[in-house]
Amino acid sequence: MALTRIKFHVLAWPRRLVFALTAPFVSLFHRRGSGWHPLRMVRRLGAFLLLAGLAEGALSLWLFHVPFRTPLYVRYTHERIRPMVLDTEGRLVGLWPVARTPGRRPPPYLGAAPGPLPRYWWRLLVLLEDGNRGRWYHRFGIDFSQLPKILVRLVRQGRVTGGSTLEMQLIKTLHADTDARGLFRVLRKLRDFAFAPAVWLALDDARLARWVAAHFPFTTSGPHGLETASWLLFDRPARDLDLAQQALLAAAVKYRVDINAYDPAGWRRAQARWRRLRQRARHGLLLLERAGGIRPEQRIAAERELMSLQLPSLAPPPRIRSCLAHRDQAAQDLAARKLDARAVFLARSELLEARAELTPWLGRDWPSEVQRVVLTVPLEANCQAKWAVQ
User: Fold this and answer.
1) Which of 63, 276, 323, 342 could serve as a FRET partner for 380 with CA atoms 20 to 30 Å apart?
2) CA distance 371 to 323
3) Do residues 197 and 141 make contact, with C-beta atoms less than 8 angstroms apart?
4) What's the pLDDT score for residue 275?
């Protein structure tokens, strides 16, 4: 009996080890509380090491081919998000994304080309979102000082959050999968680590700033980009933003401005988010002063103006309301031609989003100048959707 028990325990250890490494795939990424439970920590750590081992081969292969594949990946991804919306006179109205490969649905956001960037916005964004940028341990688009923190969060909470550089956030935005959950969040984080060196090698800080300004979301819905957010929130181009407004839009990368507050409960949530946004903007101003970017009196004046900024109550003008009265018919026409209706931004956008989309390109008086908007669907060059501005 003693020999049998010893034999059983000896044979059970490999099975228990395999269970400790594989069982977390079922329960690791569904949070059931936090704490330092020993078995839970062992399972989570084992799952992370197993995932890292599986990804190591692919990651090494990718890094080996980065000097050759970088131009192809970055250029192919960016140029596929540049179709144009033109009016009847050939003027540019806006941009919207299409599928990166035939047969795939387009990412559900619009990326608008930015104008001249404001003076302090990029530095404020770097200080808030990627503060270790430029240090010796921040290389290849990866902040290596954040890796232990990511591991601790995974072991203790079963989540993979934080530690994303601006390159990694750009990759996440381009792939339009910010709502990943569970195991897919871990796989997405590994993908961001794998693709970050490619973006880091292809884009210097000046080009990265323009890409971020074109593709990052600043509101909870609607068009992406600094230019459209500037018109939507402050009714002015981005180049004319003052220091407080630049700090607010730099902080909006983490706390997006809620523009869908149509009921009292939603408005209260939007106001709470707006207060957090202003607090983060104040923190960015303080960091900018410590870095020598502004003087103390500039920070104090900007903080006073920041506290006076209120969440705008946006109401669309009646001309835009009549302009989009035919959007449902346009969407039906596109569906009849077996095209993805999301490829045409104006056919699915809300009224406030349309206002922010058209104003940067045509000015504030665009309803009196534009008689018809021609949308050419890029998936089929001969297919067009038209409707008139009443």
Assistant:
1) 323
2) 10
3) yes
4) 92
180's tokens: 């990943």
Q: Which residues lie below 8 Å from residue 270, measured CB to CB, with a gap of 6+?
A: 257, 258, 259, 261, 311
47: nearest Cα among 194, 186, 195: 186
Maximum pairwise Cα distance, the chain:
94
Write out the DSSP string of 109-176.
S-BPPP-SPPTTHHHHHHHHH-TTTTSTTEETTEEGGGHHHHHHHHHHHS-------HHHHHHHHHTT
Q: How many whole angstroms separate alpha carbon 230 and alpha carbon 239?
A: 9
R_g over Cα of the chain: 25
Q: What is the spatial order of strands in the sheet that 92-95 belongs to?
A: 92-95, 84-87, 372-376, 384-388
Which position has the token pair 């956030």?
169
How does strand 384-388 pair with strand 372-376? antiparallel
User: Is 198 within 8 Å of 70 (Cβ atoms)?
Assistant: yes
Q: Which residues of the chain fall below pLDDT 50? A: 1-13, 24-34, 64, 66-108, 315-354, 371-390
Domain spans, the chain: 83-109+317-390
| Separation of alpha carbons 130 and 150, rounded Å | 15
Q: Count of residues for the chain? A: 390
For 174, what's the count of Cα atoms within 13 Å in the CB-facing half-sphere?
Answer: 25
